[in-house]
Amino acid sequence: MAGPGIRCWELSRALADAAEVTLFTPAESDMRPEDFRLVTYSEKSLAAAAAGCDVILCQGFILNNHPELNKAGRFFIIDLYVPMTLEALAQYEDRPLAEQNNVQTHIARAIVEQMEAGHFFICASERQRDYWLGWLSATGRMTADAYSEDSGLRTLIDVVPFGLPSDPPAATARMLKGVHPAIGEDDRVALWGGGIYNWLDPFTPIRAMAELAKRRPEVKLFFMGARHPDPGVPKMRAYDDAVDLSRELGLLDRNVIFNDQWVRYEDRVNYLLEADVGVSANFPQVETRFSFRTRILDCIWASLPVAASGCPRSCRPT
């Protein structure tokens, strides 16, 4: 699962202590939750499937794509942990300006609709909350009534961060060292968790590997998830650029390894516990400032040290 799926899954687990929870998913899953129901819906069946719910917590474009949900008078909690407009700036920056502006207009309109429909809003950090308070102010939700009820506006929007699993990590199988054909038993593994998206910087770690491999050929950089697990999300330019750079530097499938098939969520612990360091590299752009890097928390859970860096835009391939 990518970050949004992880967040839905873990929120469902946490909320199951206080309510009857149903997690709706558009695709079949072989995961079997113990504390909540998992229901697969179609485009035409979501409203009927959710008819018995008192509260609906949603993220992304669900509310916009299914306006029929808004007709039932339920209480809506809108999860704003993904700054969609900022991601889109990076995702579509190589497209014609007219197309980029159309995408921004579409996403902004969707967010405004969510601001109007939502009863309560959550996000993942205080910095994100500052960003969304601006949106709520601009869309007329920061009213005198809301202020008189709570001058801190926590009853309007509050922070629900990602957490760490309460159970300590425990390996169930070996996945990398001595198992993967490019990784030896005594090699050292730098692990990039999650996908390769246009708003991330896989290029700095790859260039670092080119220098490191001259002295430490046993060090390997493993990208745990290259393509997005959702088939509806297209492969991004950054993935192809990262593969091309690795090939150009003579590192591909030697010191830099791309895992084309995403790791099962419950199996990620095995990669984390076998790795020697986690890697997260970002560009100093506006998406980075307001994002929440989910996979770093996995590293913290596994007591895996993290090498995190930024780099100037000039380091990107042209």
Count of helices? 12
Instruction: Enumerate the strands of the largest sheet in spatial order, edge to edge or round the barrel.
Output: 9-8-7-10-11
Beta-strand content estimate:
15-25%
Helical amount among residues, as a percent range? 25-40%
The CATH topology of the largest domain is Rossmann fold
Distance between the termini: 30 Å
**CATH class division of the largest domain:** Alpha Beta
Largest sheet: number of strands, sense, barrel closure: 5 strands, parallel
Known CATH architecture of the largest domain: 3-Layer(aba) Sandwich
Q: How many structural domains in the coordinates?
A: 2
The topology string of helices and strands comes to: HEEHEHEHHEHHEEHEHEHEHHE
Give the averaged pLDDT, no decimals. 90
Given helix and strand content, the structural type is alpha/beta
User: Looking at this structure, what is the CATH superfamily of the largest domain?
Assistant: Glycogen Phosphorylase B
Regions with pLDDT < 50 over 5+ consecutive residues? 314-318
The counted number of beta strands is 11
- Indicate the radius of gyration in whole angstroms: 21 Å
Backbone shape:
globular
